[in-house]
Amino acid sequence: MVTQGNHEVESIPLLKDGFVSYNSRWKMPFEESGSSSNLYYSFEVAGVHIIMLGSYADYDEYSEQYSWLKADLSKVDRKKTPWLLVLFHVPWYNSNTAHQGEGSDMMKAMEPLLYTASVDLVFAGHVHAYERSRRVYNGRVDPCGAVHITIGDGGNKEGLAAKYINPQPNWSEFREASFGHGELKIVNSTHAFWSWHRNDDDEPVKSDDIWITSLVSSGCVGRKRNELGNTLTTP
C-alpha cells in the first residue's frame, strides 16, 4: 500500500495529470474508500484505520482531498479500529536541514483535523534519515497529539541527509542519519510497539524502540468526541 512522493511527479507539456506513470502502475483502493483520486485513500487492517494522504495533491480547506479526509474521518469507528494512522510523503515535523519547512503548508491546513480526530501515529519519508517525535501538536509537546515518525532512510542514490538543526527541538525524541527500516507491531487495542533497526547492525538489534499507548485508552478520544463531531459537520 503506497502513496506518491516527489520522484513520482511528472512534468509533461499539455498533460494535466502529473502522475500518469504512478497511477498506471500503482492502483490503490481509492474508490472503495470514497476518494476520487488514486493519490489519497484509506483502508483497514487488524484493528487499524490507515489513511494515505497526498503531499503533492491539493490539500487546502477547499480541496477535494480535504473534503474527502473529513468524510473519511467521520466514518472511523474507534471501537472497531481503535488505532488511527496517517501516512504521507513530506514530514511535518522535521529537525533535519534537508527539506526544511516543505510540509508546513499541508500541516497548517490538515493538522487541526488530525488532532481533533486523535490520530495516534503519522509516518512520512522524503528526508533521507530517521526521526521520531514525542506526541506533538502545533509545534508543542501534547499528550493528545500524534507521534510523528520520519522513516525516509531505506536507501537511495542521493545518500543520507546527515545535518540536523541544533539544539534539538523539544518535540524531537530521537534522530539519526543512518540507513535502516522500522517495524510496527499492533499488540492489542491499547498498546503498540515500534522499533527502528539500523542496517549496519544485526536484525535483532533495536537502535530505537518505544511502547506506544493508544489515544483511545488514554482518554483523548473521549474528551474530544464533541469537538470532532462539530469539526467534521462544519461545511
TrEMBL record:
Its cofactor is Zn(2+). It catalyses: a phosphate monoester + H2O = an alcohol + phosphate. SUPFAM superfamilies: Metallo-dependent phosphatases (SSF56300). Gene3D superfamilies: 3.60.21.10. One of its GO terms (molecular function) is acid phosphatase activity. Its EC number is 3.1.3.2. Keywords: Glycoprotein, Signal. Residues 146-203 form the Purple acid phosphatase C-terminal domain. It comes from the Eukaryota. Residues 2-130 form the Calcineurin-like phosphoesterase domain. It is an enzyme of class 3 (hydrolase). This is acid phosphatase. It comes from Arachis hypogaea.
